[in-house]
Amino acid sequence: MITFNRTIEKEVLRLAQYYHVITITGPRQSGKTTLCKKVFPDYEYINLEDETIRVDIDQSRKSYFVAHRHGLIIDEAQNMPEVFSIVQVVVDEYEDARFVLTGSNNFLLMQKITQSLAGRTALLTLLPLSIAELPGISKETSPYELMYRGFYPAIWSKNIPAEDVYRQYFSTYIQRDIQQVLNIRHLSEFRRFLVMCASRVGTEFNAQSMCAELGVSIPTVQEWMNVLEASYVAFRLQPFYRNINKRLIKTPKIYFYDVGLVCFLLGIKDAQQVETHPLRGQIFENMVVCDKLKNLYNEGRDNNMFFYRDKGQHEIDIIQEEGEDLLAYEIKLAPAIHPDFYKNLNYFRALFPDQTKSTMVINTGVEENRLPENGHIHFTSLE
Prior knowledge:
The chain is α/β, with parallel strands linked by helices. It folds into 2 domains: 9-125, P-loop containing nucleotide triphosphate hydrolases (Rossmann fold, 3-Layer(aba) Sandwich); 131-381, no CATH class. The chain has helices at 9-16, 32-39, 51-60, 62-67, 82-93, 106-117, 143-149, 153-157, 162-181, 187-198, 207-214, 218-230, 259-265, 271-276, 280-298, 343-351, and strands spanning 21-25, 44-47, 72-75, 99-103, 121-125, 234-237, 253-256, 305-309, 315-322, 325-331, 356-363, 373-378. A hairpin with a 5-residue loop joins strand 8 and strand 9. The chain is globular and about 65 Å long. The relative contact order is 0.11.
């Protein structure tokens, strides 16, 4: 079985020097448990999805955590909400207390952290593998193979067929996380909503058109989208906005945290089908956007990416804010560079000549040109 060196390990160790509690959120099966056990090999481990563990803690309460305070990994902590306040008390009373919390439901986890552990915990997000974390990746690697297989560690470490992994993930997510934990009604409509979102990756999230197709209300669609975000299935990329005299689109775009799940929901059966699929360009765009997001999170940084679109049909896939500086990226599923790829990038640079420090095309071509103005890089070289 292949093991991975996760880029985020360095940031976890750095923050552990300063915080008594480390909290790591992220999708189910993204590698949180493996990461914690590797970074903290001497810590004890409990999983709060285990009812017997919850019963033990419920009986002993604070004394359990006092006894295990010298290093305890608490997996899926949101399953026992009272744990957060107990950990707070123990950390406040004992200077030598060290805990690591993980969770796959960001809404429930953040709610409890805000109530009990604000200022006491470092918070990190672990998404599935980044392109750089995969073994044997080169510029000859097929983008279609990566898009089809996705980036969940089990697919790459155990060589489990991607369709099997995503079928189990989909079943578990729908039946347990959604139906039981988040109390979603209209389960069949919610399944259709998921597929509809997959068919619209890289496009504007339009709740009004979705509700008309699904036969549910706009607030219901908005609630469902919030659920997808809270459980790390999909996210909305916000539009870039500066006070300029242009009519800007202000509707966010939708992306999934893993393109393998997108392919599964679209019924794609292998990499060859991805290569001819009408949405292949949007799936590739989703993969690149998400990989850049992973790189940010792995460094302990917040998402600083937006997209640009105005009523004049000028669109740029990624605008990244680095302080006052702006980095603009166009994403193209194409091996060759065409001058038209830079048309909107040049337009954007003209709007923000002083702030725009880089205009770059991300594509599948082997040759790279890393000049800050109208350069191009291979999708496996993302930072």
